[in-house]
Amino acid sequence: MNAIDLRVRQGFSSAGLPNELVDELIDSFSEAKRRFYRDDLRPSVIEGGRFSEVVFRILQWATTRNYTVIGNTLPSVDRMVVTLQNAQGSDSVRLHIPRTLRLIYDVRNKRDIAHLADGIDPNVQDASLVIRNMEWVVAELVRLFHNVPPAEAHGIIADLVSKDVPLIQVFDGFPRILKQLRASDHFLVLLYWRGPDGATLDELRKWARPPMRTQARRTLNRLDGKDLIHLQQDVYMLTHLGEREVEDRKLLEPQ
Fold first, then answer.
1. Which of 81, 109, 207, 252 is at 20 to 30 A from 87, Cα to Cα?
2. Residues 13 and 138 in one domain
3. pLDDT at 227 over 60
4. Closest CA to 93 of 15, 10, 6
5. How far does CA 7 lie from the centroid of its chain?
6. 3-state secondary structure of 119
7. Rounded to 5 degrees, what angle do the CA atoms 108, 62, 91 make?
8. What is the domain range of residue 71?
9. Is the domain of 137 the same as that of 180?
10. Who's near 188: CB < 8 A, 6+ residues apart?
11. Residue 163: inside a domain, yes or no?
């Protein structure tokens, strides 16, 4: 379990959430994200259903201190939305999160992809919508139950699983990148994997392929000049622009 994952779990547990719900929330979110970044898109949408079911149970617990036991069938989505709407609590618990979950359910259960225009991949559209809404829901739960401001909640969940990089296999602490990349992309992927902890020049040199090591500082300076990374107190970190560069160019995939 990484430090970010542990922090999220501890924050929810400290707020009193039942541990089985915390585990199911993070596991379903993590699995959906892993599949998404592997372009395994249909299971991402299906995983959104599992995620929605556990979040509905969390909302049940938040409003009544009881919830439908995992393994038992939940009430219908429409019924849960109405019940939560009439419950006591914040607008997020009563309105915003339930309506977002209903959207995720609808994408899983009611989309007729055969009717979409040619040339548009419905799996990409649907999985992207589901994943982004799941991210918002987790951030909102963190904000509510960890009792932190929205910006801090976003920072906590930003690296929960999104930095789980299929392209990297770790051997006794050493991150092996599983395809040949040019040096700049190699460092971007490493920094994406490291998340907010970043990495020092010495670490990046150690993890780089031998031909990349002598020019490592120059390569990193070029990335800094493009605002893709940031150097602070001898630690290099990916910027938001750098994260988008990695994701948009699909640098995370082994193939």
1. 109
2. yes
3. yes
4. 15
5. 14
6. coil
7. 75
8. 3-158
9. no
10. 223, 228, 229, 238, 242, 245, 246, 251
11. no
Which residues are bridge partners to 237 per DSSP?
A: 230
The answer to whether the CB of 22 falls within 8 A of the CB of 34 is: no
Q: Which two tokens stand for residue 109?
A: 């259960």
Structure tokens, 143:
């904000």
Query: How many residues are listed for the chain in this entry?
Result: 255
Q: Which among 158, 181, 201 is the end of a domain?
A: 158
Tell the residue number behind the tokens 């999220």, with chain if given: 8
Q: How far is CA 37 from CA 2, 28, 42, 89, 240, in A?
A: 18, 14, 12, 35, 17
Last residue of a domain, one of 99, 134, 158: 158
> Do 118 and 227 belong together in one domain?
no
- Quickly count: other Cβ atoms within 10 Å of residue 217's Cβ: 12
Same domain, 153 and 172: no
> Residue 210 sits in a domain of what CATH number?
1.10.10.10
Same domain, 107 and 201: no
Q: How far apart are the first and last CA of the chain?
A: 26
Provide the pairing of β-strand 168-171 with 229-232. unpaired
Instruction: Classify residue 255: in a domain, yes or no.
Output: no
Q: What is the mean pLDDT of residues 154-173?
A: 69
Angstrom distance (rounded) from CA 31 to CA 229: 28
Tokens for 102? 């209903």
Distance of alpha carbon 68 from alpha carbon 77, whole angstroms: 13
**Residue 192, in any domain of the structure:** yes
Return the biggest CA–CA distance within the chain.
64
Q: CA 238, CA 101: separation in Å to the nearest integer?
A: 31
pTM higher than 0.70: no
Query: What digits encode the pLDDT tens for the residues 129-162?
Result: 888 899 889 888 988 888 777 777 766 766 554 4
Rg (CA), the chain: 20
